[in-house]
Amino acid sequence: MVDPIDERNVNQVVDNGKGFELPLLLFGGFRTLIDRLHAELARQGHPELRPAHGFAMQAVGAHGATASDIGRRLGVSKQAAGKTVDRLLAAGYAERADDPADARRKLVRLTPRGLDALARSAAVFDELRAEWAATLGPERVRDLEAALRTVVPAETTYRLDATSWLGGT
C-alpha cells in the first residue's frame, strides 16, 4: 500500500503490523552503509568505484578468477560480469592474465589499485560498524549479525542479480 499522506515518502510501504517494514529497513541499512562507504572511498582517491565494482572485486578474490567464475559467484551472466570486469580494467582496478593451469583461459586479477580499494573499503566498513556499535551497543550489533547469518543462505550473500527479482531482464 502506498502512503499518500507523506509526499516525501510516496513509495513507502505502510507496515500495518505485518512485517513489510523489515525488508525496507534491511535495504535502508545496506544503502546507508554502502553510500557512506563510497563517499569515503571517493574522498580517499577512488571516486569512480561503484557498489557493483566492490562486489566484483570480492568475486575476483586473491588468486584471480575467470569472467564465468565471477558471474557465477555474483549470480549474474558471464556477459554482465564481463561488462563490470571491463570497467574495472579501464579504471586500473584489475588486469587480465594467462591462467597458469589452462593456457586457453584468461584470469582477471586485482591490481595494486584494486587491492588498495579493497583494503580501504575494509577499514571504512570497520569504522561504520564501530559507529553502529556505538549507537546500538556492541552486543546488539553482534546479535544482529549472528541472526542474519542464520537466515541468509551463504550462497546468496554476494549475489548481485537484483534485476531478476525487480523485474528486469
Can you give a write-up of this model?
It is a single chain. The chain is globular. By secondary structure, it is mostly helical. It has helices at residues 21-43, 51-60, 67-74, 78-90, 112-136, 138-151, 162-166; strands spanning 94-99, 102-110. Helices cover 58% and strands 9% of the residues. Strands 1-2 form a two-stranded antiparallel sheet. The chain is built from seven helices and two strands, in the order ααααββααα.
Q: List segments where confidence is low: pLDDT < 50 over at least 5 consecutive residues.
A: 165-169
Give the ordered list of helices and strands: HHHHEEHHH
What would you report as the Rg, rounded to the nearest angstrom?
Answer: 19 Å
Proportion of residues in β-strands: 5-15%
Structure classification: mainly alpha
Q: Please give the count of helices.
A: 7
What value does the average pLDDT take? 85
Describe the sheet with the most strands: 2 strands, antiparallel
Strand order of the largest sheet: 1-2
Question: TL;DR of this structure?
Answer:
This protein is mostly helical and 169 residues long. The chain has helices at residues 21-43, 51-60, 67-74, 78-90, 112-136, 138-151, 162-166; strands spanning 94-99, 102-110.
Distinctive features:
mainly alpha; two-stranded antiparallel sheet; 2 strands
SSE layout and pairing:
Layout (H helix, E strand, L loop, with lengths): L20 H23 L7 H10 L6 H8 L3 H13 L3 E6 L2 E9 L1 H25 L1 H14 L10 H5 L3
Antiparallel strand pairs: 1-2
Helix pairs in contact: 1-5, 2-3, 2-4, 3-4, 5-6
